[in-house]
Specification:
The protein has two domains: 52-513, Methylamine Dehydrogenase, Chain H (7 Propeller); 532-662, Immunoglobulin-like. Helices cover 11% and strands 43% of the residues. The chain contains ten helices and 46 strands. The strands form ten sheets. Strands 6, 7, 8, 9, 10, 11, 12, 13, 14, 18 and 19 form an eleven-stranded mixed sheet that branches. Strands 42-41-44-45-39-46 form a six-stranded mixed sheet, with no helix packed on it. Strands 36, 37, 38, 40 and 43 form a five-stranded mixed sheet that branches. A hairpin with a 4-residue loop joins strand 27 and strand 28. Bound molecules: (dicuprio-$l^{3}-sulfanyl)-sulfanyl-copper and dinuclear copper ion (CUA). (dicuprio-$l^{3}-sulfanyl)-sulfanyl-copper is lined by residues 112-113, 161, 331, 397-398, 438-439, 500.
Length: 665
């Protein structure tokens, strides 16, 4: 019997007791439904693991948060586009360059869509990709370390929203511009939108770590491009993007972009695009963008400035894009596990429209076009439509699949998830969500093989669900059981920021691949300090570099003198522990920066510009040992022009500790 299961059975009595307790305690009518059963379904006994890792975007937090499912326990926040004082990410010298763009240092973004890498159309647990929506970027997170390793800026775009959805082999992840802008951007009248504003669809190479790049961009009419998903199986080689504002309004979009009865899904044959690019039909388009990579050996981020992309105009590459009319201001576009059905979420539509890939192929062969826009044939709606889900509710946004022939669509306005059957389009179940659901997620639910056990609703509004916390209330996720005919609400849990999309994967696929510490012997940070003897202080003009080690329970050296006003000090601290999760921290009094968090074997650098003379303590911020409170030191700052000698000492106490450690006391 697997240990998890054994543990669950062993604690069954506790579970029943807990369940009864919860059942009696429940006050809101929505949790009374089989609350006992629900509690046991999400109860992960102390000391046992969750079944899935779930990666939720942080929305305006700019990060990714990692939860265990079914418990809803928060395991980690992975900093991506926002500085994170908790770890020093984006504050320390090693990671700052990850946040560099052609607009300078951008320490925040809006993360929307977490996307796991795939092999053969199934999430493989190698990487998680996440988009920055505001200053368009895509990040790669390595899932052996839960660290951001790479960030690519997307040029000729504004609002990288339809991103970073992957192809089934992770050859590409995509990014489409939400806002059309002048391409290249230029000083033009906003009223000249129709003449001057364009959209772009970017295909980013993704299957080699450290090598993300814009493979090509497709220049599109000036609409808003919203979401995307790759084809799979028979539709492999195609990518589908929703667009709205086909009215090309540039003011009061809520009214002016809601006029057309149908907008479009852009169906992109990216294999055809590859062929056209290979034939030289794409233009070299001057474009500045940054590619930031953490060097896998030194673990220091570097910026590479790129200067050009391949830009493909559909007019020069017939067959590369078709428009599929889709009611009405569509949002999500999701492809079912078989690859045949392309489901749109028309925010204002009264139906859920579904297109057929087979019909799309036939319509192209038959030239069943109603018109052409900028070289892009518009296919007749009837020629491509597979069916419409009637009366699904209000405000369909996103659809996920359970791999058993059913689809689950989030309904923002009517606050519910609607379950319907692929092929017959009949609604078979619905469940309320609390409230105003945006995205929803089934583990693997956008892949070829969903693990269709749960659906997670991510809700925008939570009035009355939790203890109130002032004017702003928490966003929330709700875990729903989808193993039976009827969906069953199991759990509410608050989330960080405003999650949009999420992905989840069985824990067994990544939990045993975790890096436990970094090898000190292989640490090639230029400022690594491998032993106490290597520590010291060095002046180069007005720059002072301090090399020190951290180990339970001291820094060495731990007393510094000879620093003067006008100097810039760099503390390069190496945690020389070689054991899992033995962390130290580092902070200096008065520093206008964050702390450092030091993983075992890792070197991090804190920049400090002292502005007043005096003596400043520094200390370890991570409670690492019984003598953690002793883990401290001092740095003396003298006036400009002072003659105090530059010295680095290891205190008597630290020397004693070291001697004790060596003699095994
Ligand atoms: S989008 S729900 Cu990025 Cu639907 Cu938020
Ligand atoms: Cu090191 Cu506390």
């Amino acid at each position: 019997m697997p240990p998890l299961r054994r543990a669950v059975l062993a604690t069954a009595a506790t579970v029943v007791a807990a369940a009864l307790f919860y059942a009696c305690r429940s006050t809101t009518p929505t949790t009374s439904l089989a609350a006992g059963d629900a509690a046991s379904r999400v109860y992960v006994a102390p000391g046992t693991y969750d079944e899935y890792y779930a990666f939720l975007s942080g929305g305006f937090s700019g990060q990714v948060s990692v939860y265990g499912l079914p418990s809803g326990r928060l395991l980690k926040v992975i900093p991506v586009f926002s500085q994170n004082p908790e770890t020093g990410y984006g504050y320390n010298e090693e990671t700052k360059d990850l946040l560099t763009t052609t607009y300078g240092f951008v320490p925040w973004d809006d993360t929307h869509h977490a996307e796991l890498s795939q092999t053969d159309g199934v999430p493989d647990g190698r990487w998680l990709f996440i988009n920055g929506n505001n200053t368009p970027r895509i990040a790669r997170i390595d899932l052996t370390r839960f660290e951001t390793d790479e960030i690519l800026q997307i040029p000729n775009a504004a609002g990288g929203h339809a991103s970073p959805f992957t192809t089934p082999d992770s050859k590409y992840v995509v990014s489409a511009t939400r806002f059309s802008v002048p391409v290249p951007n230029a000083d033009v009248s906003i009223d000249s939108y129709k003449q001057n504003f364009k959209g772009t669809l970017s295909f980013i190479t993704a299957n080699q770590p450290g090598k993300m790049d814009v493979a090509f961009q497709i220049l599109m009419p000036g609409y808003d491009y919203d979401l995307g998903h790759a084809g799979k199986g028979p539709s492999d080689g195609w990518f589908f993007f929703t667009s709205y504002n086909t009215e090309q309004a540039n003011t009061k979009l809520e009214e002016n972009a809601s006029k057309n009865d149908k907008d479009f899904i852009a169906a992109v044959n990216y294999k055809q695009a590859e062929t056209c690019v290979a034939q030289g039909k794409a233009k070299d388009f001057p474009s500045e963008y940054d590619h930031n990579v953490v060097d896998s050996v030194s673990r220091v981020a570097k910026v590479e400035r790129k200067t050009s992309v391949k830009m493909l105009d559909p007019k020069d590459c017939p067959g590369v894009v078709y428009y599929l009319p889709t009611p009405k201001s569509p949002h999500g576009v999701d492809v079912d596990p078989t690859g045949e059905y392309i489901v749109a979420g028309g925010k204002l539509a009264t139906v859920i429209p579904v297109h057929s890939f087979t019909k799309l192929q036939k319509a192209i062969a038959d030239k069943a076009f109603e018109k052409e826009i900028d070289g892009i044939p518009v296919i007749k709606y009837e020629a491509v439509m597979a069916g419409e889900v009637q009366k699904p509710g209000l405000g369909p946004l996103h659809t996920e699949f359970d791999g058993k022939g059913y689809a689950y669509t989030s309904m923002f306005i009517s606050s519910e998830i609607v379950k319907w059957k692929l092929g017959t389009w009949e609604v078979v179940d619905r469940i309320p969500t609390y409230y105003s659901i945006g995205h929803l997620m089934i583990p693997g639910g956008d892949s070829r093989k969903p693990w269709g056990k749960y659906v997670l609703a991510m809700n925008k509004i939570t009035k009355d669900r939790y203890l109130p916390t002032g004017p702003e209330l928490s966003q929330s996720a709700q875990l729903i059981d989808i193993t039976g005919d009827k969906m069953k609400l199991l759990l509410d849990f608050p989330t960080i920021g405003e999650p949009h999309y999420a992905q989840a994967i069985p824990a067994s696929m990544i939990k045993d691949k975790q890096v436990k510490y970094f090898s000190l012997a292989q640490n090639t940070n230029p400022w690594v300090t491998r032993s106490e003897a290597e520590g010291g202080i060095k002046r180069s003009g007005k720059r002072v570099d301090i090399k020190m080690i951290a180990i339970r329970s001291h820094f060495a050296p731990d007393n510094f003198e000879g620093v003067r006003i006008g100097d810039t000090v760099y503390f390069h601290v190496t945690n020389i522990e070689q054991d899992w999760d033995i962390e130290h921290g580092f902070a200096v009094f008065g520093n206008t920066n964050a702390e450092l968090t030091l993983n075992p074997g890792d070197t991090r650098t804190l920049k400090w510009v002292p502005t007043r003379v005096g003596v400043y303590p520094f200390y370890c911020t991570d409670f690492c040992s019984a003598l953690h409170q002793e883990m401290q030191g001092y740095i003396r700052v003298s006036p400009a022009g002072s003659t105090v000698a530059l010295t680095a000492n290891t205190s008597e106490r630290a020397r004693r500790q070291l001697a004790d450690a060596q003699t095994g006391k």
